[in-house]
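Figure 3 (text version): structure tokens given as input.
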């Protein structure tokens, strides 16, 4: 099991490039199951969740080849339309194969995910949507079984609450369903739009992706395509926060600033100076003090829950009281307890974290509980005096590509230690 040793405090300076978005690449890979023809995906990040999805596609019968930084997936034949427990338990996004497998094969078997560090994370809305498209669904031995032997039929699907992978799953089911499907209260995340663009290149007919109502006209078959995954807005946001927390001067390249709107507003309110530094590049500097600002997580285009933990680390260094409200997941504050061990003043009250700052942080042994929590501990360690040991960095490896190398190039003193 690997851990990070981080010595602080440091000031970050220099350029760092954003990788492709993990949360866009995962549904794009699942979409490859919809056609027997090869699909080539560029800028797929080399992170552990992608390796898991690759294993899942191979388990289903697809071949995945890597060439010149692109992945070429050919699902000529689906041998096993299923997502086994071993893969689903390491990555909940495995449920993304349910819609495509059902649409392509008329049946699918996907293990139920079980517990998760950040909340219950059920998939009931995916299932209700697929039922609306005519699938029969039942649960047995810890698996969801879905069948539509005569194919799926277009229908109105109204999501009771906004779900990102639920929208993506239904989109992938609807593209091969007979007739029109309307997805209401759909997620508007850029990752949904990216998936819709890939599906359109494969021959799907989709309108309204990026709005709450998506209309899909089902087609008989999809064909191969080539697609480049969008930049990872959460990774880019994490580097911007790293620049702000260390009072550094950081240029984040290969990003899409239009996907970062809510974060940029909050960073500016907190005292950071942010300017465009060429196409797809943002420069962040923080000349003076950090000021406390309140943040409430929301679905896109609101403030992303996936940046909440990192922003909390920033607020430990800000003057005043910041109220951070988490509305998407019920248990996404585990990082607060670790930040407190480093000296942060944080009070937890249900879905709110009240952070009083600035507080000097000191290095400590801390444990990463989930992907974004680990990122927040790394950010805190950059400004903490002395050495921080971040344990269980496999969480961070799930979604950040070469983070220690990227931060190291900006001047962070960060080392990965592999324990036997
Ligand atoms: C996606 O998860 C992301 N994962 C998450 O990224 C992200 O935190 C989340 O969206 C919210 O933005 C991927 O894209 C692979 P949801 P997802 O369904 O789709 C409830 C990261 O760090 N809900 O939008 O699983 C659910 O419990 C992560 O990269 C139901 O009740 O999230 C939650 O409270 C982790 N029933 C809320 O909806 C359902 O059937 C939103 O979840 C589905 C969801």
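Below: residues designed for each position.
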């Amino acid at each position: 099991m690997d851990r990070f040793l981080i010595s602080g405090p440091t000031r970050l300076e220099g350029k760092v490039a954003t990788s492709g978005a993990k949360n866009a690449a995962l549904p794009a890979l699942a979409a490859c199951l919809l056609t027997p023809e090869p699909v080539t995906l560029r800028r797929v990040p080399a992170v552990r969740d992608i390796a898991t999805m690759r294993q899942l596609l191979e388990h289903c019968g697809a071949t995945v080849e890597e060439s010149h930084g692109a992945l070429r997936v050919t699902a000529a034949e689906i041998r096993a339309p299923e997502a086994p427990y071993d893969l689903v338990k390491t990555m909940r996004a495995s449920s993304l194969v349910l819609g495509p497998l059902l649409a392509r094969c008329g049946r699918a078997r996907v293990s139920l995910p079980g517990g998760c560090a950040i909340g219950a994370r059920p998939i009931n809305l995916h299932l209700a949507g697929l039922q609306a498209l005519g699938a029969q669904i039942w649960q047995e031995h810890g698996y969801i079984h879905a069948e539509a032997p005569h194919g799926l039929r277009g229908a109105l699907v109204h999501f009771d609450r906004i779900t990102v992978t639920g929208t993506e799953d239904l989109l992938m089911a609807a593209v091969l369903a007979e007739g029109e499907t309307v997805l209401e209260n759909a997620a508007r995340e850029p990752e949904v739009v990216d998936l819709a663009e890939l599906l359109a290149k494969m021959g799907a007919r989709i309108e309204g992706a990026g709005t709450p109502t998506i209309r899909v006209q089902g087609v008989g078959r999809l064909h191969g395509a080539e697609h480049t995954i969008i930049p990872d807005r959460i990774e880019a946001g994490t580097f911007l926060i790293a620049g702000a927390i260390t009072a550094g001067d950081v240029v984040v390249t290969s990003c899409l600033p239009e996907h970062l709107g809510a974060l940029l507003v909050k960073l500016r309110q907190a005292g950071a100076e942010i300017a465009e530094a060429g196409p797809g590049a943002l420069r962040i500097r923080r000349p003076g003090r950090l000021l406390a600002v309140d943040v409430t997580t929301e679905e896109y285009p609101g403030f992303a829950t996936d940046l909440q933990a990192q922003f909390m680390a920033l607020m430990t260094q800000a003057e005043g009281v910041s109220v951070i409200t988490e509305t998407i997941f019920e248990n996404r504050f585990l990082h607060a307890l670790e930040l407190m061990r480093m000296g942060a003043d944080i009070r937890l009250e249900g879905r709110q974290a009240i952070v009083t700052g600035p507080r000097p942080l000191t290095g400590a042994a801390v444990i990463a509980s989930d992907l974004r929590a680990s990122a927040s501990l790394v950010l805190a360690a950059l400004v903490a005096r002395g050495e921080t040991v971040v344990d269980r960095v496999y969480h961070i490896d799930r979604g950040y590509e070469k983070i220690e190398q990227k931060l190291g190039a900006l001047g962070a003193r960060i080392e990965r230690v592999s324990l036997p």
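The mean pLDDT is 96.
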